[in-house]
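**Sequence with structure:**
===
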Amino acid sequence: MTSVKEFRVREQPTDDALGRGAFVFTDDYSVFDWGRMPDAIPDKGASLCTMGAFNFELLADAGVPTHYRGVNSMGEAVELDEALAAGGPPTEMAIDLTRAPELPFVDGSYDYDAYFDATGTHYLIPLEVVFRNRVPVGSSLRGRTDPADVGLSRQDWPAGAVDLPEPVVEFSTKFEQQDRYLDRTEATHVAGPAALDELESVARGVNKLVTERAAQAGLVHQDGKIECLYHDGKIRVADVVGTFDENRFAHDGQQVSKEMLRQYHKHTQSGWVEAVSAAKDRATRERIADWRGLCEQQPAPLATDVVETARDLYCAGTNAYIDRQAFDAPTIDEAVAAARELI
């Protein structure tokens, strides 16, 4: 798939028991579901690991079950503050492992029944649960709904970002080659034994926690997602929560997240972005799983100053969010000002 995290297995999960492993956060990035882009963003992996660990520890304090077991530092799994004191920002997160079998693609469609047949008493729920507090420029919601559908008293989407009266929760596919938003009936089927209402409730709780923490840091939490595992009849938050890759944050009207890189590519590599869209459309029409092989263009590398600006934005944003000077980086105001000049 398109993840820029590596995966290490310490103990394989069995039919009845979770395993043990780790995420290794790289400095690679991905936009528009492309997968690994030509450049790396220095310290990006450490930024995501640090923010993710910070949020998992907030969730633990709030009594929310997760797969998080700490961050790996000096050969053992420890809490984030201990890792920061011992060796600086971590890049490895210790986690419980669940079953995530291949999702078969047969005769032009995905076979979710086969997916669940291959699991035991636990599995990674093959959904992404998306929550939205604001609809920024670039949000896919603008193309899929009318403002009235999400509680806004207007006919057209405004040119700028707009706040929603209440958070909106949606469900999309996780393991399909193209993300696909689902109605509740189809999402219920894709969730398997996990209750969709409970998934939504967990997502709203995570959204509230991240939104409140962001506000304390001077950031606006616009939208994000969670992934979850199902174990012994209970839902646990999995993957990573509340980072600049999984969520969109803004400061003083400027994106402080991967969205900045998306918008930069739209402005500077519009031909490639259009080729990606055309390839995805063709794959959908022709019922082909791997759309990347249909794309007629490749992304170009970024200029050095763009890479440096992106690095500073990730690191300054993380420092602000966790309220610690984990990275040698400019202030959030300085990093945002530099990013604003790129677009």
Observations:
- The longest strand covers residues 162-173.
